Amino acid sequence: MSFVDTLRQWDEGVTAFERQDLSEALKIFLSIEDPNSKIYFNMGCLQLLNQDLEAAEKAFDCSIGKDEHLAIAFFQRGITFYRKNRYEESLADFQKAFKALRGNQLIDYKALGLRYILYACEVLHNVALLEAQLGNWEKAQENLVKALNYKTDAKLSVIDRALQSILKQKLFKPVEFPTKLLFKPNKHYVAELEKKDYLGKAKVVSSVVPKDEFSGFAPLQPQVTSDLFLGEPHTVLFEFVPETSDELAVVPGNIVFVLQKGADNWASVVFNERRGLVPYNYLERLEISLASKKNAETPAAPTREPPSRPERIQEPTTDGLCVVKIHYTFNFAVSLPLGSPYDVLMAKISRKLNVPSAGITLRLTAETSAENVIDEKAEMEEVWRRASSGRLTLWCSVREVSDVHFVAIHPYESSNPEDLSFHEGDTITLLSRVNQDWLEGLCNGNIGIFPSSFVREVPVNGNLDTSD
């Protein structure tokens, strides 16, 4: 089978998968005579979705045989062994996946046609799970501590929860590859599969108005699309300024083609290669003749108001996300999962304003009364209940951050560049609260994050006595 044929079938298989026809996608992939490592990987993923673990194992074996450096294939075969309760082989594959990362924090497979990032900390997370599954709790903890050196902000909570489970000698769920992703062929190669018409198609370039006497800032333009033959020509009598993206701006004298007139008295028209809605009572049907009308009287103002605007269907939010609009000295918006805790919401706003969260006051309304203030004690369920159609509006103000200090009750040595090191007795100025276990602070001219269990807050005007 030629490379072109392989490429065409690969693209057809991915297309079938995207329309959720899994059996057809798998059938197409299996018909490819000499699949590469990525196509074998796609077969394995589809077999996993079908719960055919034996076939999935063989497909990932072939993928690794074609490319022994494909870390994501080792990762997926490790998941397959885990589901078959073959924990030692699963552990070995996750260790091989980590080795294939070659000390990097992550591998982004986007350049290879897979919109997925494999994180080293997630691979170590699964290594720790398998060690725990085999009863090696100390090794499991060592791997999770090692994962902290490779963590990113987005993956910090996953490692923290796993550590808490290991300390209680409880098992946890593995990190798994998403079920809706496959390797895709290079889009530039796929584009070359399409037949090209180098001559192009003829287009209409002459105006329907024999003599164009219009002068001004928006002269009549030739209609160059075939849509003009589908509608009736009309001339615009009055200027119309659109208020939504569905509507079309026109001025007196423009020639538009009405494709459809709705019962609500709005017309779908084409003008200058653009489609949009215009009130039909702003238009007048144009009788095309050999000569343009001369000395036409200026039309009177419309006899009635424009019709009510068509209802616009509100697009639902995806994946449970909520758009929170914040009124400040300027308005901005942040997006986060509906029902997120207070700390997550404040972290988003703090990052947007580049201001420590301790200096931000969040309110339900524009009024500055105490009952409208949202703080860490607020019932967030009540706040999120105010959201409508995935949207919520809040108000905020920024104040000078009051001096909140902590005194170190234990020394802390940083294991990562973003951590803050300090000695017992050092004073630390709070910059923000990352979560309930981690804080961000300033100490000895350095800024970083540190565990809250290593410090104690100093009351305002309090002393710095470090005695227990």
TrEMBL record:
Gene3D superfamilies: Phosphatidylinositol 3-kinase Catalytic Subunit, Chain A, domain 1, SH3 Domains, Tetratricopeptide repeat domain. GO terms for molecular function: superoxide-generating NADPH oxidase activator activity. It comes from the Eukaryota. Residues 294-315 are annotated as: Disordered. Keywords: Cytoplasm, Repeat, SH3 domain, TPR repeat. InterPro entries: NCF2_NOXA1, SH3-like_dom_sf, SH3_domain, TPR-like_helical_dom_sf, TPR_rpt. TPR repeats lie at residues 71-104. Coiled coil: none annotated. PROSITE patterns: SH3, TPR. Belongs to the NCF2/NOXA1 family. This is SH3 domain-containing protein. It comes from Salarias fasciatus. The gene is ncf2.
